[in-house]
Amino acid sequence: MKKKDLVFLIVLFTLIVSFSLFSQDKMESIIIGERITIQSEILDEKRTILVYLPEEYKSGSQRFPVLYVLDGSIYYYPCLGTAKLSSDMDISPPMIIVAIWATDRTRDTTPTKIPRAQTSGGADSFLKFIKDELFTFIEKRYRTHPFRVLLGHSAGGLLVFHTLLSQPEMFNGYIAVSSSLWWDDKVLLIKAEKFLEKTKEINKFLYFSVEEGESNHVKTNQEMEQLLKDKAPEGLEWQFDYVKNEDHESLWLRSFQEALKFIYKDYNISMDEVASKGLG
User: Fold this and answer.
1) What is the DSSP pairing of strand 96-100 with strand 173-177?
2) Torsion angles phi and psi, residue 182, rounded to 5
3) How confident is the model over 235-258, as a mean pLDDT?
4) Are 251 and 209 in contact (CB under 8 A)?
5) Shortest CA distance to 41 belongs to which of 108, 148, 128, 157?
């Protein structure tokens, strides 16, 4: 037998054995969520959501808190990984994650209309969609615990603050990362001052953060911090982080981790006790 023929047979035999062993391996798909389309009568359009159920959901009858995530196409996957790791480390409970896919982001996240952004000012309609349609859909379909958290970044953070100041009962926890509080001549800072002056008690959690810098974007978040230092009502548990060595985009991941630690700091004591703080 020629040497090249022997080499060919050895290679052929190796491939056959490899394919044979490979065929014996068990292949199993890893499911990391559902993609669902909802027809919204309020917004008169179809909306896409991504839903993650924790591994613990598969067995038993346990109910789980729900994290609602704005800009879902961007933040669903990092949210999933961070929330699972946090749960595995016993920092926070397993959570259902509902990530809302953006259509017209400017329209949905801004509370007022300004001339340079033609579709702006639709935040209240978007919140009505979440409250009257999305909550109903999620809570009928899944075993949810009555503890909801809203997470938003940048313009999404603006909506988080708007929700807290206009319809605080919608969520128990609010996470606003690098929020666009400069919007419309700082309209939400004005609204926040009035809200804080008249609100004597509110049992909610608020975590917000901003990257280091001297921009108007950064300064308006610091102004919100000062308002809360001066006028935060009883029962509002809040934390503000001014984070060095991060930029507007990179701040998100670090802030989400810190927010989970803050909101669920009493998790190991009693999840029901934590939830009750946000239900008043």
Assistant:
1) unpaired
2) -75, -10
3) 94
4) yes
5) 128
Quote the pTM value.
0.86
pLDDT digits (tens, 9 = 90+) for 28-80: 778 789 999 999 999 999 999 999 999 999 888 999 999 999 999 999 999 99
Instruction: Indicate the burial class of 259 (C-beta count within 10 angstroms; 0-12, 13-18, 19 or more).
Output: buried
CA 20/CA 153 separation, integer angstroms: 50
CA torsion sign for 171, 237, 210, 166 is positive
DSSP-derived pairing of the beta strands 64-69 and 96-100: parallel
Residues 6+ apart with CB under 8 A from 225: 240, 242
For 109, 155, 181, the CA distances from 245, given in Å and listed in that order, are 27, 21, 21
Does residue 79 contact residue 97 with C-beta atoms inside 8 Å? yes
Distance CA 120, CA 129 (A): 16
Tokens of 234: 């009883």
Within a 10 A sphere around the Cβ of 216, how many other Cβ atoms? 12
CB 278 within 8 A of CB 205: yes
Q: What is the rounded average pLDDT for all residues in the chain? A: 89
The residue among 124, 122, 101 whose CA lies nearest residue 113 is 122
Burial class (CB in 10 A: 0-12, 13-18, 19+), 167: middle
